[in-house]
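Protein Record: Sequence and Backbone Structure Tokens
======================================================

Structure line: whole-number tokens from a learned vocabulary of local backbone shapes, matched to residues.

Purpose: to set a sequence beside its fold so the mapping can be learned.

___
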Amino acid sequence: MKYYDLGDQKISAVGLGTWQFGSREWNYGSDYASSMARAILERALELGVTLIDTAELYGFGESERIIGRVLGRQAKDVCVATKVWPVYASEKYFALHAKKSSERLQSSKIDLYQVHFRNPAFSNSSLSRALDGVVSRDLAGKFGISNFSRYDWEDLERKFGRPIYSNQVHYSLLHRRAEEEIIPFAQATKHLVIAYSPLEQGILSGKFSFDNRPRDIRRINKHFGIDAIERMQPLLIALAKIGAKYGASSAQIALAWIISHPNVVVIPGASSVSQLEANVGAGEIVLENGEIEELNERSYQYEQSAMMPILRTLRTRLGI
């Protein structure tokens, strides 16, 4: 597996997202939080995963607590990243929330502290001063952001006067907006893009169909619509075909496609140890250029097909 330098830590190309730890939206049940989450974390360390991502919002702090109970102060070679929900931007607010996250994580200092989203109510100057409150109290070692534009990433780093090492964004074969500016900026500056929702909540695994769609929170995902699944078939077929060549699943190929991009790491979640192992296995797959190009083309076709009904409606109304 590839690793990237993030300050003084090595970040694995495949990390572990823990939104599902302690959350009820996924219908995993109470046993998941009490036993399976622990087993997943422990196996992740054994497999060389060095990026564990969470947030104060996940399970209203329960995700951080689970990680803290399992890892605590022992995970010296692991980067535990969490996020602050920036409803207010002040030194006191950020420092207080960083301290609470640190306590839940049972860590004296947060490895990577990320601003969860770009709140338009506050300027980057305000965010910079708020982060200064975390720095002055020595509550975090490194800083990142999530869902920021390229401009705001660069601007905040300049105002903060310290590296904003990473930007966590939505990136997958079905959502490629990050390729326009964010990924090129990360590559040019030796920063990282942390890709979340890499499998679009499982639709890219190829396990779902018209008659087999999830009944949990994923039911509101537009990619699980019957029309979307039909339009996605060429991409799903390509994933399965390439996977057969490597003895890999469609999900593993979708993950391998993401990390084929330099300076991009991925944080899929896992409902079981076996799923975690499969995700990590994707880090060993090196796709050929022709395979990457084929997936790019199928992905582009899916995106364009979504516009066809809109174009037909416009043409009808305009009489074209």
User: Anything to note?
Assistant: Residues 312 and 320 are 9 Å apart (CA to CA).
